[in-house]
Design goal:
This protein is of the alpha+beta class and about 800 residues long. Helix content is about 50%, strand content about 20%. The protein has an 8-stranded mixed β-barrel, surrounded by 5 helices. The radius of gyration is 58 Å and the shape is elongated. The protein starts with a helix and ends with a helix.
Length: about 800
């Protein structure tokens, strides 16, 4: 007895609501069936009614056209009577009534032939001079409506038709009992014999009774509330059920509808919907229309509609019985769900709010769920804000030092798993930031820091980590590098981006960036790597600012040297640190210089002379060899052209080494051709030295390249022969002109351990293939004489001179010319 009545009301409300839902769901198919049945029947009835109305309208049109055709036939017969035309033309006095009566008799005679034409009111013949003949309903024909006569005459002239139907209007005969008639007019012409011009001399009129049309329309029943109208060409009503409206002009909107293409459609008149069917009598310019109320058409299908309502009532009764059953089957389970959601409040998980707010069991369930969810979201948002604040910079939103240390730790662990994928840390300190901050204020300084952070972010990859360490210091962690040199390229790009001017509050400011780079190989902890990068950054500041510096203490000597040499090698060419030296190649028979090998030398201002075996492999790996090789070829061609201009045919040829990367380029031959053309290089002036490894990588491509190069006049030398995949089949196939015996074989020629067998074999092979042989690495007199005795034609090595500048080679050439006369 202590039960809360509001609780029972909530249960009843939900039960009734579910019952109503089921009632609506059950009634939908039946309602849809009734609706479709009703509309299908209505559509069928409408189509049938449309056809019937259209047929009735068409029948009325044909009747009217037949009636009016008889009128036109009457006019044609009257116009064909020459005496009638002559009577209208002759100028006779009004006292000569005999001729007038004779003419009227003729008209009456013709009229008798149309006695069956019901509705005929009168016939009038009006001459241009005013003479008037009348046969019809009254003998008082002396008085005419002159204004109507003038309008009819002008309208007949304008129409250009034989018979002009003026529609319904006032009777031209004032004394006639028919006030409104339908008038047909025909002009009678006289042809002048001299000019053959037609001149209207009389107007022949036939007046027709519109009530005759009304009787025809009244005899046809379209149904309850349905009616006909007939409209003439001027929009006046020829027929309307209300006789008072006949002769009045039809309302403009409805008139525009009737003037559209004939057919059937629905129209609204005075708030009621009608089915309209209309047709045009083209020869008359009239429109006949029938209007049928749509309500009248829908009446036969009304029982179907009431039957649908009855079915819906039955469905509602069934739904009421189901609602009682649903209380036991639905409400109880929902209460069980509520108990589960109460547990969810003590052990929450993320989800979205429910939007149900009913004051029932479902509403109670929703309130419990939403309260629990609010608590979960509040806790999660609080944790996220706290975590973000602890790991990110407040000003720029970038990672702070704590988060950067965590990323470095994970990156170093990844490097230990994949040593070939090192990481790098860039420590960035802005140059000249303090003066800007002091001059423009801290707010402008903060804006500058944000702008610089954006620029740095644009220079790094999406997988890299950009952090602000505090003040004007930033750091970039580069992960999963394919080579350590990429860190230098990214750092250089950052220096260039930061150097560009920035506009802050209307002031253009410019700062720089000094960057220290530390390469992570997996052995350092995060703090150590950050410290190394910081030390390198200070070194960059000490050596000029706005530059990059590699840390050179924590890494192995090999990594440091390679990275440093790559960094310097990229700037060596543009700074003019590279030069070409030339080593003589002599004829072993008389020590005469026949060629020189061009060798690249690097003189660094701080490192001194850098040996080729240190920087050439780096250039090969990084792709710089293509740029260096192109420069070397151009320098050698320029030197060969200079010597040829000075000594003519006595000038030595120059041998240039080609790398596999150069030979593998599809456009390499075109580059060589352009270089030869620029410097005027002729046949035999340039020897191109290529290793066996470079040729055997792709024999097909190598054959095409060598053929092209030989076509340019270059001589092809196979360098380091005997150290690679030496094969007679390859040697006979490749298009080479000479082979160079590697220094390893020459070094074996000494008095104590003379090993000439392999050298002799190479010389025999070359002789059989018609190839010139050059021995490399000749350092002693014994090696010189022994190779000459074996039949080797040319040689090079320290025995004949080291690689020297062009001036030193020119000195040797002058002595050679003096010695040989």
């Amino acid at each position: 007895m202590n039960a809360d009545p509001r609780r029972w009301l909530r249960r009843a409300t939900l039960a009734w609501r579910i019952g109503l839902y089921l009632a609506a769901a059950s009634a939908v198919p039946l309602l849809l069936t009734g609706f479709l049945s009703y509309h299908m029947a209505a559509d069928a009835l409408l189509r049938e009614a449309t056809h019937s109305v259209a047929a009735a309208v068409e029948a009325q049109r044909r009747y009217i056209e037949a009636q009016m055709a008889q009128v036109e036939s009457l006019l044609a017969n009257l116009a064909g009577v020459e005496a009638i035309t002559a009577a209208a033309i002759e100028e006779q006095s009004d006292a000569d009534t005999y001729d007038r009566l004779a003419t009227q008799a003729r008209i009456g005679y013709i009229l008798n032939g149309y006695s069956s034409l019901r509705g005929l009111v009168s016939i009038d013949l009006i001459g241009a001079g005013g003479r008037h003949y009348h046969v019809g309903d009254t003998l008082e024909a002396v008085r005419l409506d002159e204004e109507q006569r003038r309008r009819l005459f002008e309208a007949a002239q304008r129409s250009g038709r034989t018979v002009h139907w003026s529609g319904i209007g006032p009777n031209i005969n004032v004394h006639s009992a028919y006030r409104k008639v339908i008038t047909a007019a025909r002009l009678l012409y006289r042809v002048e014999r001299e000019t053959l011009r037609r001149e209207p001399v009389a107007l022949l009129l036939v007046s027709y009774d519109p009530d005759e049309l009304a009787r025809q329309f009244d005899d046809v029943a379209l149904g309850n509330g349905a009616w006909f109208v007939a409209v003439d060409g001027d929009g006046r009503l020829l027929y309307h059920p209300d006789a008072r409206l006949r002769g009045e002009r039809l309302a403009t909107p409805l008139l525009e509808t009737l003037r559209d293409a004939q057919g059937s459609r629905s129209v609204n008149i005075a708030g009621h919907d009608y089915l309209l069917a209309h047709a045009r009598a083209v020869t008359l310019g009239w429109t006949i229309a029938g209007f049928v109320p749509l309500d009248t058409l829908a009446a036969p299908v009304a029982p179907i509609r009431w039957a649908s309502f009855g079915l819906v009532a039955g469905c509602l009764l069934f739904a009421l019985l189901m609602a009682i059953r649903l209380h036991a089957k639905v409400i109880a389970p929902l209460r069980a769900v509520i108990r589960q959601l109460q547990r969810f409040e003590r052990d929450p998980a993320g989800a979205e709010h429910l939007g149900i707010t009913n004051d029932d069991e479902i509403g109670e369930l929703t309130r419990w769920y939403n309260r629990s969810l609010d608590a979960v979201h509040a806790l999660r948002d609080s944790e996220e804000r706290a975590q973000h604040a602890a790991l990110h910079d407040v000003l720029t939103g970038l990672a702070n030092r704590t988060l950067l240390i965590d990323h470095i730790t994970h990156a170093q662990a990844a490097v230990r798993r994949q040593p070939e994928r090192p990481c790098a840390l860039l420590f960035i300190d802005l140059d000249h930031f303090k003066p800007v901050n002091d001059r423009l204020g801290h707010e402008a300084g903060d804006k500058l820091l944000c702008a610089i952070a954006q620029r740095i972010g644009d220079c790094v990859r999406s997988i890299d980590v950009l952090a602000r360490l505090g003040g004007d210091e930033f750091a970039v962690l580069l992960t999963r590098l394919d080579e350590a040199g990429r860190a230098l390229r990214i750092a250089t790009r950052i220096v260039e981006c930061v150097r560009r001017p920035v506009t802050i509050d209307g002031h253009e400011v410019q700062v720089g960036a000094s960057i220290g780079i530390a390469i992570g190989d997996g052995t350092q902890d995060a703090e150590a790597l950050l410290r190394d990068a910081d030390i390198a950054m200070y070194r960059a500041k000490q050596t000029g600012k706005s530059r990059c510096e590699l840390f050179d203490a924590a890494l192995g000597a090999q990594v440091l040297e390679r990275v440093g040499l790559e960094f310097e090698l990229r700037r060596a060419l543009e700074r003019g640190q590279l030069a070409m030296h030339y080593q003589p190649i002599v004829a072993l028979a008389d020590d005469r210089i026949v060629a020189c090998e061009a060798l690249m030398r690097w003189q660094h201002p701080e490192l001194g002379a850098v040996a080729p075996d240190r920087f050439i492999p780096i250039a090969e790996e990084t792709g710089l060899i293509a740029e260096l090789g192109a420069w070397a070829l151009a320098s050698a061609c320029a030197q060969a052209a200079s010597w040829r201009a000075r000594w003519g045919e006595a000038a030595p040829a120059i041998a240039v080494n080609l790398s596999p990367r150069q030979l593998g380029r599809p456009d390499f031959c075109e580059q060589v051709a352009a270089c030869f053309a620029e410097h005027g290089i002729g046949p035999g002036m340039i020897h191109l030295e290529i290793t066996e490894t470079a040729l055997l990588a792709d024999l097909g491509h190598a054959d095409r390249q060598l053929a092209c190069l030989r076509g340019l006049g270059a001589t092809i030398h196979l360098d380091d022969f005997g150290t690679g995949y030496s094969s007679l089949s390859y040697l006979s196939r490749l298009q080479v002109d000479a082979i160079k015996i590697d220094r390893a074989f020459v070094r074996r020629l000494d008095p104590a351990h003379d090993g000439p067998d392999l050298v002799r074999a190479i010389l025999l092979i070359a002789d059989e293939l018609g190839l010139t042989v050059v021995a490399e690495g000749i350092e002693t007199e014994y090696q010189h004489q022994r190779l000459a005795a074996l039949g080797c034609a040319h040689g090079q090595g320290w025995r004949f001179g080291r690689a020297a500048e062009p001036a030193a080679i020119e000195t040797q050439l002058r002595r050679q010319l003096v010695r040989t006369g």
